[in-house]
């Protein structure tokens, strides 16, 4: 079957599921960059998601999965592919075992954090301001302000099986899933009992820190580069004099040198060229090769 036939077969089987044809990925990425893919599908359940993944595989059709698109730089002219999006559809959040929460991969971290707070569960505050989904966060062991997914994940259900925290091989901004090819369906999060007021206070304090230091009013994908072992990417970029460095519509943020922002009409190439320029200048000055944190899909 070709892509159209695969989509038709899927739609016949799962009536009512949203299949957006020729959908521009700029509508689904926080960078607001990305051209049209053959279709973006919003599955209502893991069964639908796995069915689509399997028929794509059987028919040799490229299939990518995204959450909230907050760590992605998508090509303006992507190859033919189907994109499965879990955000806005597979987003159940519920209490599980003692001090545990189960959430589907499309649940936003901010919503899980509020749910934890309302249920007097402490330890997820660090993730409240990270704008991604649980799936995207497990994929790259997202973290902030001293916490990371590694500290709170008990088990992960993926297309290939169920994994304990240890099996996930979490390390700085990576997990066993980072190599791609698998699909995270949901996870159990293990927390401690805490006072909702104290939890809320911590979340507000971290939000304020974020607001005052990050360019949250401009499209971006968060930190562009991973932290190298020699220090902080943002500090190196700033010391190399690159704050405000611009290529087309892409710019190193004036507010936080670790962020590349889209000033309005940045293209995929603008961001890639800007990133290349930053890498070259930082390597020249510090002898450090910065590695991208954002995932590039073309
Ligand atoms: C303003 C801003 C601030 C940010 N701050 C932080 C921060 O403090 N700390 C931090 O770690 N990150 C931060 N980020 C980056 C981003 O929010 C995180 O990396 C987040 O975990 C990405 O989740 P997502 O759902 O948006 O993933 P996406 O961007 O949609 O996807 C990212 C990767 O995960 C894969 N993926 C997504 N869902 C699944 C799934 N269900 N199964 C398998 N693979 C999947 C995708 O294929 C892709 O390769 C920030 C981003 C922005 C825009």
- The main sheet orders its strands as 6-7-13-11-12
Estimate what percentage of residues fall within beta strands.
15-25%
- Number of β-strand runs: 19
Number of helices: 7
In angstroms, what is the radius of gyration? 19 Å
What kind of sheet is the major sheet?
Answer: 5 strands, antiparallel
**How widely separated are the two ends?**
23 Å
Write down the overall mean pLDDT: 97
CATH architecture tag of the largest domain: 2-Layer Sandwich
Bound molecules: flavin-adenine dinucleotide
Q: How much helix, percentage-wise, in residues? A: 25-40%
Q: According to CATH, what is the class of the largest domain?
A: Alpha Beta
Q: What's the overall geometry?
A: globular
H/E element order: HEEHEEEEEHEHEEEEEEHEHEEEHE
Explain the overall architecture.
The protein has 298 residues and is an alpha+beta fold. It folds into three domains: 3-85, 2-Layer Sandwich (Uridine Diphospho-n-acetylenolpyruvylglucosamine Reductase, domain 2); 93-211, Uridine Diphospho-n-acetylenolpyruvylglucosamine Reductase, domain 3, CATH 3.30.465.10; 215-297, Alpha-Beta Complex (Uridine Diphospho-n-acetylenolpyruvylglucosamine Reductase, domain 1). The protein contains seven helices and 19 strands. The protein has helices at residues 3-13, 46-58, 109-118, 134-139, 196-213, 233-239, 268-286; strands spanning 18-24, 36-42, 63-66, 72-74, 82-85, 93-95, 100-104, 121-122, 143-144, 147-148, 153-158, 161-164, 184-190, 192-193, 220-223, 246-247, 250-252, 259-262, 295-297. The strands form six sheets. The chain has a five-stranded antiparallel β-sheet with strand order 6-7-13-11-12. Strands 1-2-5-3 form a four-stranded mixed β-sheet, covered by helices on one side. It has a four-stranded antiparallel β-sheet with strand order 15-18-17-16. The chain is globular, with a radius of gyration of 19 Å. The two termini are 23 Å apart. Flavin-adenine dinucleotide (FAD) is lined by residues 30, 64-72, 86, 105, 130-133, 135-137, 139-140, 142-144, 177, 183-184, 214, 216, 220-222, 295. The site of flavin-adenine dinucleotide has 33 residues, from strand 3, helix 4, strand 9 and strand 15.
